[in-house]
Amino acid sequence: MTYLDYHATTPMDPDVFEEMKPYFMEHFGNASSAHKYGWRAQIAVEQARQQVADLLGVLPVEIVFTSGATESLNSIFYSLKRALFGSVRVHMTPIEHPALVRSAHEHSGEDWKFCDLETDSTGTILLDDLETVLKGDGHSILACHLAHSELGTLQPLFEISKRIKKTEALWVADASQWVGKVPLDVKRLGIDYLGFSGHKIYGPKGVGVTYVSKDRMKVLHSMIVGGSQQDGARSGTLNVPGIVGIGKACEIARYRMSKDEEYCLEIMNQIIHAVSKNFPRIQFLGNMDHRLPNHLCLWVPEVSSSWILSQMKNFGISTGSACSLGYSPTWKYLEKFGYPKGIENQVFRLGWGRMTTRAEIDYFLSEFFEVLRSHPFHQELEQ
């Protein structure tokens, strides 16, 4: 089997697993206990908090550990509902991940209004009117992905940052696909709230991070109530092995990000060149100049992506976000730019990473081309 679905989840880095192992059996203490077992666990948690903070360019006190990005985003909007009084406008693109959309709607107040933030055909947020849109009476929130899980597009963060800093708007970022793949200076950008998961960066599942800027930390309310862990920001016994794992994953990402990016870009260029040469009608969706280095979204006109995947049983490939349960608003949205109705049935996503080998990519391309050439419309794709 060849795994090419790195945007659904990544394999765990062996060094992350080795770092976690002692905290299952040897250092099993509760991080809140006032004895050496607890102190050892607490030291490990705080080390991980520092590792996460170093990757994001923030302070350790601004990091709260959660069960994943979905909980983080829910917690953020749960807190905002209790902190913001009066009218609130939430600006989102129509192609956000359901974790962001549903969190915002579930925890919205009576005076909250949701406004579509327009993008171009690549999923890039339109900047021209952004500053004007974010200004106005009441509170304004920009809630958006930083990198799109299906199109692979990277948002122009510094351009967005320049505009949002001229307003009083808050910035809530779904950073699940960006963190660990492309450098991110959260403080410089002025992001107020952010969430991501460990399993997207070669860490364990079931652990994530909420970042809250220090000046906003006082309005953070624990959505999960109980004990006073993490200074009351999130109750519940700390998942020490998971926290150690996400910390180590962040440390590894920090020192080898440029190496990973270079390697992944080489693979991207190989795939683009081979596909374009053999099947010129296949199109790559998303912004091809500003995209994740390990992501491609392929549109194969007139050919069912489900059929392609059914013929390639030795590959782990998806047609989109694993959390969308077969439906994604992305493809419907693209119809307004002239893409055909039903395009969602003709696209699939490729994701690779530091553990992907060149031999696996060669094998994928060989099998993919063989499958396409067995399709009745293969001659049209080759023209």
Please tell me about this protein's structure.
The structure is a single chain. This protein has helices spanning 14-20, 22-25, 36-56, 69-83, 98-106, 130-134, 157-164, 186-189, 240-278, 305-311, 329-334, 358-373, 378-381; strands at residues 2-3, 63-66, 88-92, 112-116, 139-145, 170-174, 193-197, 208-212, 283-285, 295-299, 315-316, 347-351. The chain has 383 residues and is of the alpha/beta class. The protein has 2 domains: 2-8 and 257-381, Aspartate Aminotransferase, domain 1 (Alpha-Beta Complex), CATH 3.90.1150.10; 14-252, Aspartate Aminotransferase, domain 2 (3-Layer(aba) Sandwich), CATH 3.40.640. A 7-stranded mixed beta sheet has the order 2-8-7-6-5-3-4, sandwiched between helices. Strand 5, helix 7 (157-164) and strand 6 (170-174) form a beta-alpha-beta unit. Helix 3 (36-56) runs parallel beside helix 9, helix 4 packs parallel to helix 5 (98-106) and helix 9 (240-278) crosses helix 12 (358-373). The protein is globular.
Task: Fill in the keyword field for this structure.
383 residues; alpha/beta; Aspartate Aminotransferase, domain 1; Aspartate Aminotransferase, domain 2; 2 domains; 7-stranded mixed beta sheet; 3-stranded antiparallel beta sheet; 12 strands; globular
- How many independent structural domains? 2
User: Which sequence of strands runs across the widest sheet?
Assistant: 2-8-7-6-5-3-4
What percent of residues adopt helix (DSSP H or I)? Answer: 25-40%
Q: Tell me how many strands there are.
A: 12
Determine the number of helices (DSSP H or I, runs of at least 4 residues). 13
Q: Which percent band covers the strand fraction? A: 5-15%
Radius of gyration: 22 Å
List SSEs in N-to-C order.
EHHHEHEHEHEHEHEEHEEHEHEHH
Mean pLDDT: 93
Highest-level CATH class of the largest domain? Alpha Beta
Please describe the biggest sheet, giving its number of strands, its sense, and whether it closes into a barrel. Answer: 7 strands, mixed
CATH topology category name of the largest domain: Aspartate Aminotransferase, domain 2
